[in-house]
UniProtKB/TrEMBL annotation:
Belongs to the UDP-glucose/GDP-mannose dehydrogenase family. GO terms for biological process: polysaccharide biosynthetic process. Keywords: NAD, Oxidoreductase, Plasmid. This is Nucleotide sugar dehydrogenase.
Length: 445
C-alpha cells in the first residue's frame, strides 16, 4: 500500500526530519524560528528585507526576545539559516506565515502581505507540505484566502498539502513567558491537518491547545485582544470621569484589585500601542458587516482609546496654562518614552508618536527621550518624524523644557533626578506615585 502524503509528512515531523520555513522574521517570526530550531528542526527564515539578512549573517539579533548568543547558537548548529530567496520554500515541509496584517487608512483589513506571501508559496508548492498562517486576522482568512490561493495551483488541501492556523501570542518585554512556554492554539483544515499541527507545534512548545477549525482559532486571537482593548477603554474612560470628580483612578484600581474574585486590574494610559490591541479588533468589526451585525462595544472601545492622546495633550496644555502661565504653542515639551510599552524598543502604533504630532499641530515643540530608541525609524503614518534622535536626559537639558510628559515608564529612567530637574511633569503612567515621588509639580493625566 502506498504511503500517503499525510503519513510521510507526519513521520518527518515526528522524527524531526522536516524542514520548517518561517516567512517574516520580525517580532513574531524570528522568536518562533528560534523555538522551532531549538526543538531539533532545521529552519529556513525568509524575509524581503535585506538589512535583516545582514544582521543575521553577523549573528546580530534585532529582536529583544532573541539574544545574539541564542541566534549564533542555532546558526552554528546549522539549524537556522536566513534568505531573501523564496525559491527555498520548495525544500520546506512546514511553511509558517508571520507577516504584518495592518489596517488601511480607512481602518479596513490590509491583507496584501498575506496574499502576496500566499502567492509566493503557491509558486513553490508541492505535495506533502503543511502551510500555517500565524498572522492575526478575521475568521475565514486561512480557508478563504490562503487555501484558495494555494489550491489555484491544482493541488488540493487535505490530500496534496495541508493548511492550518495558529495565532501568535508574542508579548515583547515579557520576562516570564517566551515562545516555547506560551500555550499554542492550533487548528487545521480537516483532521489530518490538525494532527500535523499538533505534532509540529507540540514538538516546539510546552502546551498545545487544539480547536475545531481555523476560523475558531482566528477568533481566539481576536477575542484575546478585544478583551484587553475593551477593558483598557473602560479604565481610560473612568480616568476622565474620576478626574473631573477629583478622584485618583489609580488609587481606585489599587483598592479594587484587593478583591480576590470577580475583578482583574487594567490600567489607563496615553493611548494604545503595539500591533495587536489598536488594530486587531477592527478586523472583527470589518468582518461583522458581512453578517449585518453591529459591533458597537468594540468600536466604542476603539474610539475611547484613540481619543486618549488628545485628552493627554489637553491636560498638558491646561497644566502649562495654570502652572506656568504659558500657552502650549510657545512651549517646549520632552516626551519620555517612544516605545509603546516599558523596557522594549517596539514603537509600533505607539501613542507617543501621536502625542508628538498633536503637540506640534498645536504649535508646540516636542522632543523625546527613550533609552531603547536612539532614532525614530521610518513609519507608515509618521514620516515627518523619521530621523529624530533621542534627547539627552541631563539635569541641564531637562530644565530647559517647559514640561516633561511621561508616556512610557521605562525602568531605566532616573525618575528621582527627573523630579528634581523638571519644572512641570505630566504623568500618564502613575510612575511617580508608585515610586513615592509625588510632588506638587507632578500632574497625573
Amino acid at each position: 500500500m502506498a504511503i500517503s502524503t499525510f503519513d510521510t509528512l507526519l513521520q518527518k515531523i515526528e522524527t524531526r526530519n522536516a524542514r520548517a520555513g518561517v516567512i517574516g522574521l520580525g517580532y513574531v517570526g524570528l522568536p518562533l524560528a528560534m523555538a522551532v530550531a531549538r526543538s531539533g528542526f532545521a529552519v529556513t527564515g525568509f524575509d524581503i528585507d535585506p538589512s535583516k539578512m545582514v544582521a543575521l549573517d553577523a549573528r546580530r539579533s534585532y529582536i529583544d526576545a532573541v539574544s545574539n548568543e541564542a541566534l549564533a547558537a542555532e546558526i552554528e548548529a546549522r539549524r537556522f539559516q536566513a534568505t531573501t530567496d523564496f525559491a527555498g520554500l520548495a525544500e520546506c515541509d512546514v511553511i509558517i506565515i508571520c507577516v504584518p496584517t495592518p489596517l488601511t487608512k480607512h481602518r479596513d483589513p490590509d491583507l496584501s502581505f498575506v496574499e502576496a506571501t500566499s502567492r509566493s508559496i503557491a509558486g513553490h508548492l508541492r505535495p506533502g507540505q503543511l502551510v500555517v498562517l500565524e498572522s492575526t486576522t478575521y475568521p475565514g482568512t486561512t480557508d478563504d484566502i490562503v487555501k484558495v490561493i494555494l489550491e489555484g495551483t491544482g493541488l488540493k488541501s487535505g490530500s496534496d498539502f495541508f493548511v492550518g492556523f495558529s495565532p501568535e501570542r508574542e508579548d515583547p518585554g515579557n520576562q516570564h513567558y517566551h515562545t516555547a512556554t506560551i500555550p499554542k492554539v492550533v487548528a487545521g483544515d480537516g483532521p489530518e491537518a490538525l494532527s500535523l499541527m499538533k505534532a509540529f507545534y507540540g514538538a516546539a512548545v510546552s502546551t498545545v491547545v487544539p480547536v475545531s477549525s481555523n476560523a475558531t482559532a482566528e477568533a481566539v486571537k481576536l477575542t484575546e485582544n478585544i478583551f484587553r482593548s475593551v477593558n483598557i477603554a473602560l479604565v481610560n474612560e473612568l480616568k476622565t470621569v474620576y478626574a473631573a470628580m477629583g478622584i485618583d483612578v489609580w488609587e481606585v484600581i489599587d483598592a479594587a484589585k484587593t478583591k480576590p474574585f470577580g475583578y482583574m486590574p487594567f490600567y489607563p494610559g496615553p493611548g494604545l500601542g503595539g500591533h495587536c490591541i489598536p488594530i486587531d479588533p477592527f478586523y472583527l468589526t470589518w468582518k461583522s458587516r458581512e453578517y449585518e451585525l453591529p459591533t458597537r462595544f468594540i468600536e466604542l472601545a476603539g474610539e475611547i482609546n484613540s481619543a486618549m492622546p488628545r485628552y493627554v495633550v489637553g491636560k498638558l496644555a491646561e497644566a502649562l496654562d495654570i502652572r506656568a502661565g504659558k500657552a502650549l504653542s510657545r512651549s517646549k515639551v520632552l516626551v519620555i518614552g517612544l516605545a509603546y510599552k516599558k523596557n522594549v524598543a517596539d514603537i509600533r502604533e505607539s501613542p507617543s508618536l501621536r502625542l508628538i504630532e498633536i503637540i506640534e499641530e498645536r504649535g508646540g515643540r516636542a522632543d523625546y527621550h527613550d533609552p531603547f530608541v536612539a532614532e525614530i525609524p521610518p513609519t507608515r503614518e509618521y514620516q515627518a518624524l523619521k530621523g529624530r534622535r533621542s534627547a539627552a536626559l541631563t539635569p541641564e537639558a531637562v530644565s530647559g523644557y517647559d514640561a516633561v510628559l511621561i508616556a512610557t515608564d521605562h525602568d531605566s529612567v532616573d525618575y528621582a533626578a527627573l523630579a528634581k530637574s523638571a519644572t512641570l511633569i505630566i504623568d500618564t503612567r502613575n510612575v511617580f506615585n508608585r515610586l513615592g515621588l509625588s510632588a506638587d509639580h507632578v500632574i497625573k493625566a
